[in-house]
Queue: 2 jobs
Job 1
Amino acid sequence: MLSPTLMWRGVKDLGVHPWAQALTLAAVTLVAFLGGLFLLMLHNLDRELAAARGSAAFQVYWKPSASQADVARQWEELAAMPGLADMQTFTPDQALSDLMAAMKGNLDTNSLAALKGQNPLPPTALLVFDGPGGNAGTWAKDMVAKLSARPGVDRVNYNPLQMDLARSWSGFTRKVAWPLMAFLALVVGLSVGNTVRLSLLSRQNEVEILQLVGAGRWYIQLPLLTGGAVQGLVGSALALGMLKALQVGVADLLAAPPLMLTLRFLPLPDALLLTATVTGVCVLASVVAMRE
Amino acid sequence: MVAVQRLSHNFGSHWALKDVSFTLGKGEFLFLFGPSGAGKTTLLRILHAALPLSRGLAMVAGFDLRKLSRADVPRLRRSVSVVFQDFKIMPERSVAENVALPLEVRGLSRLQIQRRVRAVLRSLELEHKSACACATLSGGEQQRVAIARAIVVNPKVILADEPTGNLDHDLSVRLMEVFSQFHQFGATIILATHDRSLIDIPKSAQVLELSGGQIGGGPAPEPEGPAC
């Protein structure tokens, strides 16, 4: 008999024991949902932290005595630096205007306006770089040294906490998240695998009868493998549907103050990974059950 | 078609069969007669490779059971049909589906399968039950489904283990007539029973009486050494 016919028989046979198959499917779906929920949380946590750690900001202060022409030339050079994502510059007058705008209503701005022409504020530039690869701490120190060495620069500020956060997250993913993912994969494997295996053992009588009427190995095994694969596919599809419903339902709650968190759905590669893992485990469990 | 020489089989310290020999040509009918525990089922199980042949020789439908590989077992079973006392049918599937199973395994077309299933069900007066799930049938009807599944492929050999064990006498006699008819078309049949009244139904049937695992009876001897 042709393989597609046998595979179709495997799909049709799922309807022969509807309750047993429905319960197996429910178990596969729930375990896949729990696995997907963990992936969803990890993905969103990673994304939030990536947003914080993904850029490094350096505030450069020139000496108030520095020539504005020299500073303007340096701004042009800085703008061409590799990895620069954003740059904002402030002349002393711009800084004073911004300060006045910010203080409006709280301070007598006339006294600030009187400072024009004898402005004590220095020229500054806020440089935002894309997150560095490799050793972020060393990169930041080198960048501070490089910027500080520029002529007329008084000081350079940067927030080392951002780099610490990047390092902490990298350590967390290496030491906790990935081992946890591996553990979760093992739990999914054992739960789904054992459920499918028990479901197939209930069809032992059917397999015995097929053997008695002269069915070959392929004829018996292909429909069972197909049935296992279909349960894995349908189970993970249902789990992804439930995850989507959860994400849509909870996203608004999380987006409101004070949390202000954006909950995004699993990206396609993660969703495919979940589907492939659950389906693969179901097929593998079918193979194990047939060997028994 | 079936040749057995000095066939013995033991389960631990118990000899289920000891030195059993017989030969059956094409189209011959053999009654295996004996009480429960006589070794009838063990002999039939060996003949369709459900138990390994450990001692002696056995040829069935051209297959030497001593040299039978795992891949040969399905081929042997396509030549040898078996009817069990406990039916071994799929209760949740319909009568027609159960009977069609060995034909599907052999790769026949849907049309051929339908024709042959209908013909066999008609001969066993089951045509009206064709679409019914086997679980809804009586014991006698289920037994007839098992027989229909065995004969639908026109096998060279039929092995039947107490096929009338669950039936009343009248139905048993009618089923023996079905076997008898099928035998006339050239199939070799070995039928195990403990019901002596059935033996006269097929004409020219041979009878092999088993008792204690031996032909003709006598206590089963102890094995020579540990068998496990």
Job 2
Amino acid sequence: MKNLLLLFSVLLLFSLLPTPLPAAEGATDSAATTADDDLFSADPFATEEVELQIYDPIEPVNRGIFWVNDKLYFYLFKPVARGLRIVPEPARVSLRNFISNLTTPIRLINCLLQLKGRDAATEITRFVVNSTVGIAGLFDPASSNGLAKKEEDLGQTFGHYGLGSGPYLVLPILGPSNLRDGVGRIGDLFLDPLTYILTDAETLGLKVVDAENELSLDKDTYEGIVKHEIAPYLFIRDAYEQNRAAKVNK
Amino acid sequence: MNRTARFFFLVIAFTLLPVGLCFAAPGPMETAQHTVETVIGILKTPALAPEVKRERLSTTIGNSFDFEAMSQRILAQNWKNASSKERDRFIDLLAELLQQNYLGHIESYTNEKIEFVKERIKRNKAAIDTLILTKSKEIPVSYHMLQNGEGWKVYDVIIESVSFVNNYRRTYGQIIKKEGFSGLLAKMEEKLTQLHQENQGQ
């Protein structure tokens, strides 16, 4: 109960934040680019109606954390994930499905908060189908039958109601985020049934296992970025904000 | 022309229309499918030496993109300010970097399926939505193409809602702002040297 009160007071404070933070700084360079496009005629399939504004006031700090995360990735998390690969891939996919099925309430509540009735119904159906036919969520027969997972979280819910992303943040270990999504992540913990069933240590353990498992299924995305991009920090920052903006607008 | 003649003329015109369309240049979706098939074909030819494979893949990829259109979009305002020499240098470097990037992805290909979901065409531009189906997930990839004298060429790739061109426009824009156009070119050259060294080391 105390936790919930804390959460709501944080949310309340947060909601008082002025939304149009971005326009402040670092955004000036991109504003000019959308207006004059006679050279390359407007893109009818443009993914951004308005140029995305990225606000990174604590860039030096973020870059520092990015550097530490990079080392942690290559010297700790990735080797562990590689070790996990001795477990056959189907088993790891099943582990992911299982945990994802248990965290249905996070997605469901966020669908409801955004008044997306159809998506909420999809999440409920998925849970019923995958918990039964999918043997306690180990398999995902719902997806193969046109019921794809609705990835919704509190960060997207805030965005849905017009809250801007705020300053970009690189979180220790967790990686790219922003103020809105970071607070959302904390809030989502309260919507996660595992938080209530397990002890804090067990929840943390499960999150670590889930993340390492995810990394073991990933095809070296981060390695590819570091190898090929001339500015990995900038590339990831932009990719994160583009991806989140698209999810909010969905 | 009397009425009967006109009628026959119309009938012939309409029966021949589909035939004419069949012989017309391939549409954007067909072009994209053809490219994917060619790439997979090269990958699945075991007899080819790795260098030959790389060479052929590189040519195929090179022919599928409109690097000049991409460069214009990426550089935006900076394109206008650049000299023609700088522009050409940028196009060359971008083309090479992109090919390296794509080769990296292609070479880690392990029988994923590519599903062509839909094609949207607006005049001389098109968007081809695809899904890459891996064992553990589906990755939406969209190719934005434009029609130039040589056919349909890709000018932007959107992976999981992240537009490559938008990303580079802002990312490269920041670098130009801090280090100038020559600073950007130097960074690109440095990256390419590094990639070539790594490839030779393998």
